[in-house]
Structure formats: C-alpha cells, structure tokens
Amino acid sequence: MALRRSVTRLVGDLNLLPSLLPRGAALLHSHATSFGFKEVPEEEKSKLVGNVFTSVSSNYDLMNDMMSAGLHRLWKDRLVSKLHPFPGMKHLDVAGGTGDVAFRVLESINSVSRRAMQHGLAETEEETQIYICDINPNMLNVGKKRAIERGLGENHCLHWIEGDAEALSFDDGSMDGYTIAFGIRNVTRIEKALAEAYRVLKRGGRFLCLELSHVELPIFKQLYDYYSFSVIPAMGELVAGDRESYKYLVESIRRFPNQEAFARMIVDTGFQKVEYENLVGGVVAIHSGLKL
Fold first, then answer.
1. Residue set of the binding site
2. Which residues define the annotated binding site for S-adenosyl-L-methionine?
3. 77-112 pLDDT, tens per residue?
4. Has residue 259 got a pLDDT over 50?
5. Which residues bind S-adenosyl-L-methionine (predicted)?
6. What is the pTM of this model?
C-alpha cells in the first residue's frame, strides 16, 4: 500500500511539472514561433496577428502612405509588372484583403485587352478570375468597400475569399499566378504557406512575394532602425491610436529571414529560377520563382 501511494504521488507531481516550468521551458514542448520579438505557441500566433490587423484595418491605407511616403504604391506597381498579367488568367493574391494588388492586376489585364483590340487581335475565350484571399474579414471588408468606390463592386472577375495562406481552399494546379504583398512574414509557418503557393500553381505558374526586408548598408541601416523603432510606433499611436500593433509590425520585419535565406526557402519548396530584387536598398524585396 505504501508503495502504491508513493507511485500515485509521483505521477501527480509529474503532471504538475508543466505548470511549474518557466514559460520559456514550456514553449520548448509546444512548437514556439515568433510574434514580433516575443516567442509564443504556434496556436496563439494567428489569433494575435488577427487582432493586430483587425485593429489597423480602418487606417491601413493611410498608415501605409505615411510610413512609406507613398512608395508602397510604386513597389506594388513593380510587383505586378513582374507578374506579366494576361487576359484569361486565374490569379490568386494572398493576404491582399484591401485589394491593392488585385486592382492593379485587373487594371494591367484590361490594358492588355484594350491594346489587343486596337490591333485587331481576338480576345481569349477564357474569363479572367482574380481571387483575393485574406484570413482577416475586416481587411476584406476594406477591399470590398474600395472596389465599390472604384466602380468594381459588381465585377465578376474579382472574388473575395476568407482563407488561410497555410491551408488554401483552391485546387491543385489551378492558378496561373500567386502574389503575396506584406503578408508572408505574418503567417505562423512560412514553409507551409510556400508549399501551398506551390501546390495551387499550374506548371509554368509564377510566384511573387513583396515583403519588407533587410537593409545591409550600415549607415542606412542605422537610420532605418531609428525610423522603424522610434518613428513608426509613435506615428501609429498618433494616427491610429495603436502603438503596440505598429511596434509588432516593425519587430516582425526584423524576425523575417533575410533575402538570401528566404530565397533558399523558396528553392527548397520546389520553385525554380528563384531570384530577388532589392528596392530602396533592401527596405523591401521582391522574390520570385516559377513552378516548372
């Protein structure tokens, strides 16, 4: 009986161990990931990121203009120019709830169609389909509102989908193009998001990622760090009344892999002809790859 009581007491003590361990030690047993400079369990990150973008959605466009001095518009133009959109394509823009990239893709396709008609070329029988996928319904609502303001509210080419970059609802090999702008650093498992991008693309499909990246030039880096950690959170507090969300956004940039490391991740996924282009000295980078 004494032996049985001792064993029972020992088992009970072992069951209490997780609650007695420091938070960092507990994370070792639960697949930790980064949320800014913090380490959190993977299952918590998507909720925390969701809270951030719910908070910033109403001021998202204004803050993007202020933080980048309007340059984000040129960066997105460059992204779409590298995509080479064409009439009849099926394109997926992930984490693009505000519609910024999707509207540019549609505008580019319409421009190609107009030039083709001017030269007497027949239009393709395939109907253009552009899917805007975002995990945050508030961001999608911003995009839908912007579409209505642009007279695109009833456009049958645009499809607004609430979905997760790590578990897309689209069929294998169904897309001609995939873009993600300023979104991949916020996913829980980057490798999974890349694998999903590869899965849904057709053979010959193009992957393009625009993301805030790493500045290498020392003097410029010091200025950029000061601007990022001192000015942007203060701007978020002044304009959006939310310092913490913009503090997270800055920290998430520093935790994101540098240009070479991210390129290797894309190659490891299976993409070929992988390359990247630095803009503004590496403040942002456009990574690209083909599924061959």
1. 98, 134, 164-165
2. 98, 134, 164-165
3. 999 999 999 999 999 999 999 999 999 999 999 998
4. yes
5. 98, 134, 164-165
6. 0.80
